[in-house]
Design brief:
The chain is of the alpha+beta class. The protein has one domain: Nuclear Transport Factor 2, Chain: A, CATH 3.10.450. The chain is built from five helices and four strands. A hairpin with a 2-residue loop joins strand 3 and strand 4. The longest helix has 18 residues. The protein is globular and about 45 Å long. The relative contact order is 0.18.
Length: 137
């Protein structure tokens, strides 16, 4: 009976430590940010960014039209697939390549936006305290 208890404790410790690996945290932050950002939920997306990203969000928001919103809703749910993660433990930074399905591509010069069925994105993240956050600068 005591062996079962010790085995369960060791298994629990292993599961907890594996679940909080830097790679899993980077992956989670990137997916949560991209889903929120490309679903136009900017308040949620800002939670996954380093401070001082408001100008980037303001620029993006100022170029969104009702037509763009309607097209995005019609396209379906935003999906994010991680393709590659590169973590630099010395500089506490990471670079993530992902594929986003049903994302809005804004072209402010032509004044038009289109929904891309699939698009590859690269995000840089920095470790801030215990969190990995997107750096849009």
């Amino acid at each position: 009976m005591a062996y079962k208890f010790v085995f369960l404790q060791i298994t629990l410790i292993i599961c907890i430590s594996c679940g909080r690996s830097p790679e899993n945290e980077v992956k989670s932050s990137t997916i949560n940010f991209a889903r929120a950002f490309y679903s136009l939920n900017f308040q949620e997306a800002k939670k996954y960014c380093i401070s001082g990203t408001s100008p980037e969000f303001d620029y993006y928001v100022s170029n969104i039209t009702q037509e763009s919103i309607d097209a995005l809703k019609k396209a379906g749910e935003v999906q994010v697939e991680i393709l590659d993660i590169n973590i630099n433990n010395e500089s506490l930074s990471a670079r993530v390549k992902c594929r986003v399905t049903n994302c809005l591509k804004i072209n402010p010069i032509e004044g038009a936006s289109i929904v891309e069925k699939q698009s590859e994105k690269i995000y840089n993240l920095k470790k801030s305290g215990k969190d990995w956050l997107i750096d849009l600068h």
